[in-house]
Amino acid sequence: MADTQQVDPKAERRAAKLAHQISTFAKAHGGAEGQVAHIGERGARIVLVGEDGGWGDLVAPSTEIAEQAVAKSGITVHESFDGEFAAKVTTGSYEWKRMAGIQIGG
């Protein structure tokens, strides 16, 4: 019986591009872990945390594409951004000033 599952070439290319970006981030930060979060109609957010505490994120057009990308990149994926995972993030003075500015209306 033939496999009738349709493969969307555009989605495949997008997942491959995201996987490359994730791999580049991981290489620059001594490895990485991630978490995929659905963000509504916009798609899905891929949060990345490097072994050195550096962090970043990418947005995929769908949760399926985001999950394909993290699978292709080979990073460890967490189900949630829980306390243990979040504790790996290193924040600098920029983030602290930015957060304080939001609190005081800046």
Defining key terms:
single chain; 4 helices; four-stranded mixed sheet; 43% helix
Question: Would you summarize the structure shown here?
Answer:
It contains 4 helices and 4 strands.
Walk me through the structure.
The chain has 106 residues and is of the alpha+beta class. The longest helix is centred in the N-terminal third of the chain and has 20 residues. The protein starts with 8 loop residues before the first helix and ends with a helix. The mean pLDDT is 88.
Topology of this structure?
Elements: H1 9-28, E1 32-38, E2 44-50, E3 55-60, H2 63-73, E4 76-78, H3 83-86, H4 93-103
Parallel strand pairs: 1-4
Antiparallel strand pairs: 1-2, 2-3
Any idea what the shape is?
Answer: globular
Average pLDDT, to the nearest integer?
Answer: 88
Separate helix tally: 4
Helix-strand category: alpha+beta
Give the uncertain stretches in residue-range form. none
Order of helix and strand elements from N to C terminus: HEEEHEHH
